[in-house]
Amino acid sequence: MQTPTQIPFSLTNQRALITGGGTGIGLAIAQCMVAAGAQVILTGRREEPLQEAVAGLGEAATYSVSDITQLDTLDGLVDRLEATHGPIDILVNNAGINLKKPALEVTDEEFSRIIQTNLNAVFALTRACGRRMVERKNGCILMISSMAAYYGIDRVVAYAASKSAVEGMVKVLASEFSGHNVRVNAIAPGFIETDMSRKAMNGDPARRDRALRRTPMGHFGKPDDIGWAAVFLASGAAKYVTGASLPVDGGNSIGF
């Protein structure tokens, strides 16, 4: 039981690995976790964004260039990171890719590429970190899901399939891991303003307007809205929360 002098939302002495942490939502999660006291390790395929992110985050951050779709490298990646930085307490599976295309035009190769990044790699890295967390009887795993897992959004069949599968994975892993003091949860962002989403929305005004109309709060979210939700779920304040998917969407998932 926590005493009144403890800060339940603190991540002090926690070490977080964040995939796709150099830009967008991943960077916002890193910024919020650093503000909450965590040490963060960012990973991604491109070194320049990671360097820039770490420079802005300061001494609490470091990075490792890695392509998570190379599944056979992930156990070695986790081994190297833990040997260098210490045990990973928090894993944030943020990296992902999308494809907006009518379902009948999506090729097998395109579908497989989305599944490889958004699902297969997520499971492989979660398995690598989860095995060590279970052995230590401590850990937190966060998946970044999507509104596309909640309802049918046209032209994103591969992306929706991958995120729906991640939602199912959260429930199974929470069932298997939680008895070992390893919690597994998801965050399902609504429409969040990032450079990538802004470009996509500006190129599809009809979709942008429809998204706004069904969002009760009447505006899109900011990346740190996801960041602070991640801090909450990773912290002691959520110590009895596992197997959950938290919409951070301004009410979009219940809007009419």
Description:
The protein has a seven-stranded parallel sheet, sandwiched between helices. 45% of the residues lie in helices and 15% in strands. It has helices at residues 24-35, 47-57, 74-85, 108-136, 157-177, 195-202, 205-213, 223-234, and strands at residues 15-19, 39-44, 61-65, 90-93, 139-144, 182-189, 245-248. It is globular. The chain has eight helices and seven strands, in the order E-H-E-H-E-H-E-H-E-H-E-H-H-H-E. The protein starts with 14 loop residues before the first strand and ends in an 8-residue tail after the last strand. It has a single domain (15-254), classed as 3-Layer(aba) Sandwich (Rossmann fold), CATH 3.40.50. The longest helix has 29 residues, at 108-136. Helix 1 (24-35) crosses helix 8 and helix 4 packs parallel to helix 5 (157-177).
Number of strands: 7
Average pLDDT across residues?
95
Which structural category fits the helices and strands? alpha/beta
- Portion of residues within helices: 40-55%
CATH superfamily heading: NAD(P)-binding Rossmann-like Domain
Strand order of the largest sheet: 3-2-1-4-5-6-7
Amino-to-carboxy terminus distance: 41 Å
**3D shape:** globular
What's the CATH first level?
Alpha Beta
Question: How much strand content do the residues show?
Answer: 5-15%
Per DSSP, the total helix count is 8
Taking all Cα atoms into account, the compactness measure Rg is 18 Å
Could you list the spans in which at least 5 consecutive residues all have pLDDT below 50?
Answer: none
Q: What is the architecture at the second tier of CATH? A: 3-Layer(aba) Sandwich
Integer tally of domains: 1
Topology as a string of helices (H) and strands (E): EHEHEHEHEHEHHHE
CATH fold-level assignment = Rossmann fold
Q: In this structure, how is the largest beta sheet organized? A: 7 strands, parallel
